[in-house]
Amino acid sequence: MTRAAVLRGLLALVPAAEGQAQRLLHAGAYWAAIERSGAVCEAVSRSEIVASPGRPQARAVFAFSRDGKRRGELHLIFARPVRPGAAAVLSVGAESFLLVTRGTSAWSRGPAQEAAIIAAIRRSAEMRVRAQGQGGRISDRYLLGGAPTAIDAAAIACA
Is the pTM of the predicted complex or chain greater than 0.90? Predict the structure, then answer.
């Protein structure tokens, strides 16, 4: 897949809300950084497996906000809902992180965990998130080429 095709795919994941401006900050191997209306900056990628047409695409987002409320908050969006009460486990290299889940999403548990996840990403080539979905196991893999630079670009833009 060409870099242009990857970039188009990443940008399709983050459509701007009506009336909301967005600006591309950085596009790397598998990750892009985007600024939304100057208030929120995100590093975003899609899972390694591309969703079938008409199906939701699993994706990962690290969010930063100018007001300082989000400083690398990880938000994972699954292609289907997680079973109520089920946990999600993120593996980055040899490290594992327990995430909070609701509906089709999982989130990091706070600033200390977010910093640890970002540090692990800097040392790893891939990450995987696993959860029990309503229709069976969910396992999404993300390649991390370009992730540190996209995360840094999003963090700097919203600093």
Answer: no
